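for the writeup, i need someone to sanity check this before i put it in the appendix. the sequnce is what the collaborator sent (i think, or maybe the updated version? ugh). structure was predicted straight from it, no edits. if anything looks off just tell me and ill rerun, i have time this weekend
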Amino acid sequence: MAIVFGVVALWFAAGGNGEDAAGRAIGTDFVSFWIASQVALAEGGAAAYDIVAHGIAQRTAFGPGDGYVAFFYPPVFLMLCLPMALLPYFAALGLWLGSTALAYLVMVRHWLGGSFGSAALTLAAFPPTLLNAGHGQNAFLTAALFGGGLIAMRTRPWLAGLLLGLLVMKPHLAILLPLALACRGEWRTFIATGAAAAGWCLLSWAILGTGAWAGFIANTGLARSTLEDGLVAPAKMVSMFAAMRVLSLDVATAYAAQAAFAAVGAAAVIYAARARLPRPAQDAILAAATLTVSPFLLDYDLTLMAIPLAWWFAQTQRRGFLPYEKAALLALFIAPLFLRTLATAASLPLAPLVTAGLLLGCWRAALTASPSRHSRAASAR
C-alpha cells in the first residue's frame, strides 16, 4: 500500500500547478463533471450537452491540456453534480471524492464486517479505490448505491428501491438488477426501483428542463462511436468487448463475445435464484456478474468488486480458507492495478479473466455457504 501511494504522490508532484505528470488537471474526468455543472447553471441544462459549448468552457478553464473530456451521463447525474459548480474546482473535487468515498466505506464495512479502521485500510490498498480517486470519477457513488441497495433490500425494500433506482445515473451498471429481482420474487423492491428510477428522471427533468434530456439522447450516437471507434482506448476498459478490440478483432466479433460473456453472468444470476442460495450470496454473485455485462466498463468501475470480494472473505472467516482461496482472493484484489498496463504495453487484456474468476470464486463460496439440497445438487452438477 505504501508503494502504491508513493507512486501516486510522485505522479502528482511531478506535474505541479494543479496538474499531474502528463499535464492533465488533477481529477481528470471530474473536469467534465464540474464544467458541465458550471455550464448548466449559467446557460441551462441543454448547454451541458452541447459538445461545442462544453468544450469551449473546458478549454477556457483548463487550457488545451490532454484533450477534451466529454460528458455523456444522463441528466440525473448532471443534477447531482450541480452543487459542485458553486465551489472552486479543487474544493469541489475534494468534496466529491470525500463524500462518495465515505459512502463507499460505510457500504463495504457492512459487507466485510469488522471495524471501520480495518475496512478503511483495506479500501486504501484496493487498486480501484486509487483509480477512481485519480480520475475524480463516480465509481465510489455507484458502488455505494449498488451495495447499499442490496443491503437495504433485506429489511427495507422501499429504501432499497430508492438507492438502486438512482443507478439510472449510470444505467449500464443496473442491467441485471430487474432480472435478479424478478427471479428472486423481490417484487416490492422491483416496483420501488422502477418507480424511483422514473422519479429521479422526472426530478432531473423538472430541474434541468426538456433540453437536457434532448441533448443527452442526441449524444448517444457519439457515445457509441466513442466505444466502437476507440476514442476511449480499449486498453483502458475492462469489458470483453474491449479485450477483443485490444486483440484487433472487429466490432461485430467484439459485440458477439461481449454478448456471450454477458449471457454467462445472467445465467449465474438466474441459477443462483433458482438454487435458492442465501440472499447475501446471491447479492455477491449479482455484483460480480454485473461486471460481465456492459461493453463500456472502465477500470475504476471495478470498485464494484469490493462487494463480492468482501462477502467472499467474510465467508472464509466463518468456515476457514479452502486450499486455493488465499491465493485467489489476493490475486483478484491486486489484479486491477495491472490490467491497464498489461493491455496497453503488452496487448494482454486479462480483465475478463479477472471478472470471470471473481464470479466463479463467489459461486464456489456460495455453495460452501449453503448446505441446502439445492446447493448440493448445484455443486454436483
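DSSP finds 22 helices and no strands in the chain. The first helix runs from residue 2 to 13.
thx in advance!!
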